[in-house]
Amino acid sequence: MVLKKASLVTVLALAVGTASAGAAFAATATATSAVQITNSAYIVNGTTVNLGTITEKGTTLVSLRDLSAKLGAKLQAAGGVVQAKLNGHTVELKAGSAVLKVDGAEHKLNVPVKNAKGVTYVELGAYVEALGASLYEDGKGSVWIDAKLLSNVDRIQWVDAERFIATQENETGRADYLVEAATGKYRLLDVAADASELILAPNGTKVAYTNAEGQVSVLDLTKIGRAVVVSTDTNIKPELVWSADSASIYFLQGDKGSVIAKLDPEINKITKILDDKVDYKANLEVSADGKTFTYTVTKPGAVVADANKPVEEDDVSIDMKGTEPQIYQFTVDPSVKENKAVQLTTSTDDKVFIHAADGSSVAYVSVSADTSAKSTLVKVGKDKNVASLYNERDVYQAEYAGGKWYLLTEGNGDDQFVYEVDPATGAAKQLYTLSSAVSGIVVKEGAPLAVIQDGRVLVDVNGSWKPASK
After folding, report:
1. What percent helix, strand, coil does the chain show, rounded to 5?
2. How many domains are there within the chain?
3. pLDDT for 182 beyond 50
4. Is 227 a member of any domain?
């Protein structure tokens, strides 16, 4: 989630090409003038390799044989036509031809396939795309070519320093995968088709989700298998939150999120924590000791009708005054008679990216109704006083990890910045300058920072952005 949709920009197009499978494929090669062959460095499937390249009319072509071998494509030649197979795609090309045949359809090349010194060369961008692989140039000029990456990822969450869960959304539903960040290797998680968002346990070993009937299931990430139903209760559960020790699951109950309850998945036992008849609770946070519950309450708008007009005109409007979300806290204390939740805020701003680290204060991004005003990171204490944590730049996204806040903010021009903010002192340090094509950041203590850019996951590896999806 980001507050402002970043405008998409086109990733730098690479005019490059691919190379041939050797002298056996050169039977129909046309005569060539002297060309300069260069060994150029690329990162193919995560490994730095040298590929033979030539430049033709300002376009870089690469050795078909070299690149195909590194990508794992199978080559064969017959009648002067070279056929390459990878990822379920079949590509046919011929020296001297300006056409690639991809799965039976013809695609025109900017530069014809070329034979030089018994080696076939072809445009890299066209050949990589034809094989269903991906090509990306990072900010340092390194070119990444990957044939094994998951594609079209909408969001991710880190499991640990080496793996993340990637989610794809499409017209027919959703698919979730466990992905190794270093290699891009992935496997489909066996999750119900109507599953809610996967909620990762703090220990990183399992995820929980609920279905349309309200049942709760837990999937063990340490082994390949199916999720286990741990609660057959059919009350709707719009939000799930794991306990700090990964043993229990707290949740909001009912289609209006009226009740806060706790599930012990080992014995399928549900205990009510708070049932105060207040509807539209959301953004549930639970303190590490399981005693303090932070959440928002949003009141619905009121229907207003003009009493001077006939009822049959059905002339009504919705009064949205007082519908802004407000932050509440409830602390379990058996010694307090008629214990009630406390409302911490009354302001008219929107409140997003809410987090209560220890229950003593609540931080959130304040979004003003005035569209010209900056969104800022603030905190409110039990004394109901609101204090600023960061207000230098417009905040698009805020994530909390390892005792620090990480903010995606406006930058200069088309840039965006990532800041690290110390909640204790308010000290802010700029960590990254990102393209406006970045739609979100993903952080977890001990894991590298990841970003989502144009549907692609990029992971910071020693200052370079490594593609982890395509």
Report:
1. 5, 50, 50
2. 1
3. yes
4. no
User: Which of the 8 DSSP states describes residue 177?
Assistant: E
Question: What is the average pLDDT score of the chain?
Answer: 89
Query: Per-residue confidence at 322, pLDDT binned at 50, 70, 90?
Result: confident
Domain with residue 55: its CATH number is: 3.30.457.10
According to DSSP, the β-strands at 302-305 and 155-158 are unpaired
On whether residue 52 sits in a domain, the answer given is yes
- Tell me the two tokens of residue 384: 């109901």
- 78 found inside a domain: yes
379-421, pLDDT tens digit by residue? 999 999 999 999 999 999 999 999 999 999 999 988 999 999 9
pLDDT tens digits, one per residue of 49-77: 999 999 988 898 999 999 999 999 999 99
Nearest to 149, CA basis, from 8, 259, 43, 286: 43
Q: Please indicate, yes or no, if residue 139 is contained in any of the structural domains.
A: yes
Question: What are the backbone angles phi and psi of residue 341, rounded to the nearest 5°?
Answer: -70, 150
Give me the residues paired with residue 178 across strands: 165, 187
Radius of gyration for the alpha carbons in the chain, expressed in angstroms and rounded: 28
Retrieve residue 94's tokens: 């011929």
19 neighbors 117 (Cβ within 8 angstroms): no
Q: Distance between CA atoms of 122 and 65, rounded to whole angstroms?
A: 10
State the CB neighbour count (10 A cutoff) for residue 426: 15
Q: Show the domain range for 34.
A: 17-146
